[in-house]
Write a structure and sequence with these properties.
Blueprint: H1 3-9, E1 17-23, E2 31-40, E3 43-52, H2 60-80, H3 85-88, E4 102-103, E5 109-114, E6 119-120, H4 128-144, H5 163-176, H6 186-194, H7 201-207, E7 214-216, E8 225-228, E9 234-237, E10 244-246, H8 248-259, H9 277-291, H10 297-301, H11 303-324, H12 336-353, H13 355-363
Amino acid sequence: MNPRLAAILENFKLPGKLLEVLPHKVGHIHDTYIATFRRSGEETQRYLVQRVNDHVFERPEALMANIQRVTAHLREKIAAAGGDPQRETLSLIPTQRGRSFYKNAQGEYWRAYTFIENAQSYEKIRDLDHVYQVARAFGRFQGLLRDFPPSALHETIPDFHHTPKRLAAFLAVAAKDPHNRAQFAQEEMAFVKERGEEAPILTDLIAHGDLPLRVTHNDTKFNNVLIDDATGEGVCVVDLDTVMPGLALYDFGDAVRSGANPAPESERDLSKVGIDLARFEAFVHGYLDAAGDFLTPLEVSLLPFSAKLMTFECGVRFLTDYLAGDVYFKTDRENHNLDRARTQFKMVADMERKFEEGRKLVSGN
C-alpha cells in the first residue's frame, strides 16, 4: 500500500481499518483513488479520494466551498422528499478538523466522498431510456437547487459559457495566427464569422434581466450521471467542480451537444455526425418532466437555440485552441482539435437544418 496515500487518508474522518487504496481511472483532471476500509466484522466501506488539480482550478478552496454548500442543500431537500441523501447526492467526508478538504505540506488539496455503490456512469449511451434518465437527473438537480441563491457561490471558472468572450478570443488568435495554421482552417473560420452575431443572444438577455441566473452544473456530459444498476434510473449527478451561477440553458444545451450526436466528438467522417432527433426528443421529455414546472416560458422557448449555441461555442473553443497551438485541450494526434471543431460545426449545421423540428418537439412536450 502506498504509505503516502495512507498518510493522506489519516486526515479524514474515515472509520475502520484501511485495507487498500487503488487508482480509479475516471476523468482526466484529478488524481482519483478508491480507498476501502473495514468497519466491523467483514463489513467494508469504499470512499472516492481525489487530489484536486489546482492548475485547472486555481481556487480550490472556493471550489470546495461551492461543493460543500450545494451538497448540504441537496441533502436537506432530498431528505425532506423522503429520498436517500447518501445515494442521491455526493457526500463529502470531513477532515479531522471539520473541513471539506485537506491541504498537505506540499500544497496539495485532497478531498474524499462516500463511494456510491451499485450505480455507474456510462461513456456510451445505451438507449433512449438512458437519454431520458440522464436528462431527468439534470433537470431534477436544477429543481432541487431552484431556491439556492446563485450569489452564494463562487465563479470557479470566470466567463465559462460567455460566448461573446469565447468568440473574441478566437478572433484575436485568428488575427495573430501564431503557428501559421489558419491556412488549413479557412472554411471553419468562415463558418464561425458567419454566425458571430448569434453569440451574444443569451448574455444580452441576462444583461437585460430577461433570463434568471440559476445554480447550474456547467458540465452536463452524459457520464456525469450515475445510473442505478437495478432500476436503470438516474440516481446522482456527479462532478460538481463547475457548479456555479449560470443559465439552465447552458446545462440543457451542453447536454444535448454531448449526447445527441451518435458519432464520437472527433469523428473524421462527417457523414456520421449530426443531431439525432430521437435522442433530442428523449432529452426534452426527461428534462422538462423534472424542470418544466419552474423554467420560465422564455427559457423553454430557447431550449433548441441553447443546444445550437453551446455546440457552436464548443466548436469555437476547439478551433481557437487549434490555432493557438493546442495549449488547452489534450490531443492524441495531429489536427485533433481541428477535427473536433469540424464535428461541432457539422452538428451546428445539422441543428440549423432541423431547427423547426426541434422547436416543435419542445413546444409540443
